[in-house]
Amino acid sequence: MASQYREIAKKTLWSDNPVIKQILGICSALAVTNLVSNTLVMGIGVALVTAFSSLTVSALRNIIPIRVRMMVQTLIIAFYVIIVDIILRAYYPDMSRALGPYVGLIITNCIIMGRCEAFAQANKPLLSFYDGFMSGMGYTLILTIIAVVRELMGFGTILGFRILGDWWTPWTIMVMAPSAFFVLASIIWVANSLTVSKEKAAGQSISRGVQTSGN
Amino acid sequence: MKDKAWFNLVFMLICTALFTGILSGFYVYSRPQISANARLNEITAQLNALNIVIPAGMSSTDLELYYEQHIVVKNMNGFDVYQYETNDGSIYYAIPFEGAGLWGDITGIIALDQELKTVVGMDFVSQNETPGLGGRIQEDWFKEQFRGITLYSDGDLIRYAAAGSEGQVDAITGATATSSAVIDILNESIKQAKTRIGGDN
Lengths: 215, 201
Fold this sequence. Notes:
The complex is a heterodimer.
Chain A: H1 2-15, H2 26-31, H3 36-59, H4 69-91, H5 93-99, H6 110-118, H7 125-155, E1 157-158, E2 161-162, H8 172-175, H9 178-201
Antiparallel strand pairs in A: 1-2
Chain B: H1 5-49, H2 60-70, E1 71-75, E2 80-85, E3 91-100, E4 105-113, E5 119-126, H3 140-144, H4 176-198
Antiparallel strand pairs in B: 1-2, 2-3, 3-4, 4-5
Helix pairs in contact in B: 1-2
């Protein structure tokens, strides 16, 4: 049992990470990563929505008719996204203003539907909840790395605290969405090189599946 | 039974009713809090624009009272204006403005003196500009520039200072679209206010 949990953690955070391995959730990876604080809130939002959607889908998996399961999944995801949006607007108005329309767009994040379809549909509720939450954490991890690079180079700060002195000239490109592509691509490059060299070292043949992209 | 079309339909209907029902309940429950936040945001913007110092550590109820002590809503030619009269009898107007920014609507408050010749200050209520670029209009240094500037009497009432031309305020480097949107919205709103409020002076 415990090994199952450890396996999921390893997969979602690294070896099968939703962002760098499955190339999911790219839209929001570009949109919210120019400030670390926005990224963290977005990440927690995605993790919670994924976790609770997976929990609900898993709990209802034996009742939901197979033909309408995707409609039900979308409904469940939308339900949790709106709840997150209302909570932010009611209790964290500043954060809600900073994230603007992005919260509503959590709904289009392929990671959530991906976990519902690929995992929650065939596993027990608690395990699905954990899998959803950890997938959200895997997403948060990568986005936070991107955000740290972007905020540091774009503003000279991290979480609003000045790290680089006045000598640093902020890179405007780092504040704009396209820079997330450069940073994300670099991370994927490094991650893939590490995996490949590991496989080579182990003397295994390198087989790389066709990666599906979404969002 | 599970394969039947009617079952799918009924299942979907029940599911939708259930989830939207819970959602509506939750929304109704948190609506007072959400509108209170919006109200707080709006009155803070008005007080800031009018340069009325908000004492630190005020609760939202105190702030509402404080606001009502200072500001009266006046309807002028079908146009709501927030009026502030100081102890020595000078009158200032806080005027809401609204217009299209780069990504979404920009709304806010601009405060003018009674002759509509000087800007007392301005503050934004909502904006969706790029964080770190256009979004910097929300920073104090940008907003504070508008305090006490004298409006030009013809053409654009507020202008950005640029090489070779005079103006009252600085635009934001790297955010040309947002900067010009803001100045256009402000100029348009002040002109409108002039025709409406000026009508009964």
